Amino acid sequence: MIDNQSDKKQPNNSHKLDTSFFNEIFSIFTATEVRHFRQFVASPYFNGRPQLVPLLDYFIKTKHVEEAPTQEKAFSAAFPSEKFDDQKWRLTLSQLYKLAELFLAQQELETETNFPKLRTAQAYRKRNLPKHFQRMVAALQKEQNTIAQQDANSIEDHYQLEWERYRFLSSGKRTEEFNLQGTSDLMDMAFIARKLRHACFALSHQAVYRTEYKLGLLEAVLEHVAMDVRLQDHPAIGLYYHCYLMLTNVGGEAQFERFKAMLFEKGHLLPDEERRNLFLLAINYGIRQINASRPEYDRPVLDLYKMALEGNLLLEEGRLSRFAFNNIVAVALRIGEVDWVERFILENKNNLDREHRNITASLNLARLEFARKNHREALLHLQRSDFKDLINNLIAKTLQLKIYYETGEYEVLEAHLRNMKTYIRRQRAIGYHQENYLNIIKFTQSLVDMNPFDRTEREALRSNIEKAGRLTEREWLLEMLNE
Fold first, then answer.
1. Left if phi > 0, otherwise alpha if psi is -120 to 50, otherwise beta: which for 137?
2. How far apart are CA 94 and CA 179, in angstroms?
C-alpha cells in the first residue's frame, strides 16, 4: 500500500508522493485487480502512452513496502533519461488516474450480463445486419426467460431490448404490428418500480433525520398501482408498494402482514442488497411498534430476523451488528424462545465484530440466564465484561436492577438505582433513551416503596405504568406488581 504518512525521513532532494485520487484508488486494489490493471494499462487499445506501464510497475513494486514511494523515483521510472519536471509529473500521474477510472468502469461493465449484448444488437441494427441482429435478440430473449431476478433493472433490460426491436422493425417500414404497447408497459413498470423504491427509502430517511421530501408523481403512481392487481403482484413493484403503505401506517398490522408475507414469498426474486434493505425496513418498522408497547409485533419481527439470518442478509462485510444481535435476543426471549436464543448466541457470536464480540456475547448470555431464573449465573456473565458502550451499559444495569429486585436485595437495589440515575443524567448523547430508563428507575423504586397490602396504591401504580410513554420494561414491571 502507498503510505503517504510514513514517519521515515526522506533525503532533502526527495519528496514523498503527493496524496492524489490515483493513490486512493490504487491502495484499495486487490492483488487480482492489480494484475488485471497492469494488463489493462499494457494494452495499446486502452493506453497509447508507453511511459505509464513502467510508472505503474514502480507503484506495484512499492505497494507493500513500508517506505513510501517518492515523486522523483516514480518520475524516473516513467522517464528514465529526463530530469524531474513537476508539471510533467502531475500530468503523467493524472493520465494514469484516468486509466484507473476507465478500468473501474470496465470492471463494472463486465458485471452487467445483458448490457454488452444489447449494445452489440444495437450495433448490428445500425449497420443494417438483420440476421446478426435477430440472432442476438433471440439469445437475449432466451437469457431473460432464464433469469430469476425480477427487479427494476431486469425490467429496464427487457424494455431496452423491446425498444431495440421496435427500432429495427420500424426502420424497415414493415406492415406487421409493432411492439409499442409492450414497450410502453415495460417502460412504465421500470419507472414505477424505481419510484416506489425511492419513496420507501425517502420515507425511512425522513423519519430519522426529520426532513421532508417532495416526491413528485408518487401519488399518481400509488393510484395507478392500486387499480392494477397485476402490478401489485410483480415483486419489484408489489414489495415496495406494500412497504410504502406499511411505512405510512395504511392498514396497520394487516398491511404489515401483507408486506411480510410477500417478502417471504417473493423476496428471493430481487437482488440480495434490495432484499436485505426490505427486511431491514420491515424489522425497523416492527421494532418501532414493539417500543410503542405493541407486543403483537414480537413474533412477526422474530420471524423476519430468522428469515434474514437464513439468507445471510444481516451480515455486512461478514459481520453481524451488535445492535441487531441484541434486538434478536431481546425479542426472542420476550416470547419465550429460550433454547433457540442459546443456539443463536453460540452459532453467531463469532460473526460479531472482534472488538465487541466477548462483551456482546456475555451480555446476552446474562439475559438468557435471567430468563431461566438463573440469577447467579446471569450476574457472573455481567461481571466478566466492562460495558463501555452506552446502550450495552444501560441494558446491563437494567438487568442487574431486575435481578436485585427478584432476589430481594433491596438495599443493594436502592444504591444501584441511585447510581444508575446519576449515570443517566451525566450522559449527553443518550437522546430519547433517557426517558425510558428514568421511567424504569422511577417505577422500580415505586415497587420497592409500595405498601403491598394497599390495593388503591397498587392500582394507581398499575395505571401509571400502563400509561407511561417510553417504557421498555413495562411487561416486567406489571409482572412484578402482580406477584
1. alpha
2. 47
* Spatial contact of 343 and 351, defined as CB atoms under 8 Å apart: no
Provide the phi-psi class of 249: left if phi over 0, else alpha when psi is between -120 and 50, else beta: left
Look at residues 319, 318, 289 and name the one whose alpha carbon lies nearest to residue 304. 289
Q: How far apart are CA 296 and CA 341, in angstroms?
A: 19
pLDDT surpasses 70 at 198: yes
19: left (phi over 0), alpha (psi -120 to 50) or beta: beta
Contact 22, 93 (CB under 8 A): yes
Mean pLDDT to the nearest integer, 263-285: 93
- pLDDT tens readout for residues 376-420: 999 999 987 777 788 888 999 999 999 999 999 999 999 999 999
For residues 14-28, average pLDDT: 68
Q: Which amino acid is at 131?
A: K
| The pLDDT value given to residue 71 | 86
Q: What is the pLDDT of residues 70-125, one digit of tens each?
A: 888 889 999 999 999 999 999 999 999 999 999 999 888 877 766 678 888 888 98
Output 111-118 pairs: Cβ under 8 A, ≥24 positions apart: 113/143, 114/140, 114/143, 114/144, 114/157, 114/161, 115/157, 117/143, 118/157, 118/160, 118/161, 118/164
Mutual angle of helices 52-62 and 31-42, in 10-degree steps: 170
Q: Are 169 and 179 in contact (CB under 8 A)?
A: yes
Contact 193, 151 (CB under 8 A): yes
Specify the 3-state DSSP secondary structure of 70: strand
Is residue 161 a contact partner of residue 125, using CB atoms and an 8 Å limit?
Answer: no
Question: Are the C-beta atoms of residues 473 and 459 closer than 8 Å to each other?
Answer: no
Q: What is the per-residue pLDDT for 5?
A: 37
Are 371 and 333 in contact by the 8 Å Cβ rule? The answer is yes
Q: 92-95 — which CB contacts under 8 Å span 24+ positions?
A: 92/49, 92/51, 92/52, 92/55, 93/20, 93/22, 93/55, 94/22, 95/49, 95/52
Return d(Cα 144, Cα 137) in angstroms, integer: 10
Query: Would you state the cell numbers that stand for residue 110, as one nine-digit string?
Result: 463486465
For residue 34, how many other CB atoms are within 10 A of its CB?
14
Q: What is the pLDDT of residue 173?
A: 62
| CB environment 364-379: b (16+ within 10 A), e (fewer) | bbbbbbbbeeebeebb
